[in-house]
Amino acid sequence: RADLARGLQCFDEDFDIKTDRRVLESLDLFNQYHNAANGRIKIRFGPHAVYTCTPRYLAETADLAKELGVGIHIHLSETRNENENCVKTYGKSPTQHLADLGVFDLPVIAAHGVHLSDEDISILSEKNVSIIHNPASNLKLGSGVMRAVKLVESGINVGLGTDGASSNNALDMMREVYLAAVLSKGVFEDSVGIKAYEALKMATVNGARALGLSDVGRIKAGMKADITLIDLDKPHYYPLNDAISAVVYCGKGSDVHTAIVDGEILYENGEYKTIDIEAVKAGVKRITERLFM
Question: Among the CATH numbers 3.40.50.10540, 2.30.40.10, 3.40.50.1970, 3.90.1030.10, which is that of 225-293?
Answer without folding.
Answer: 2.30.40.10
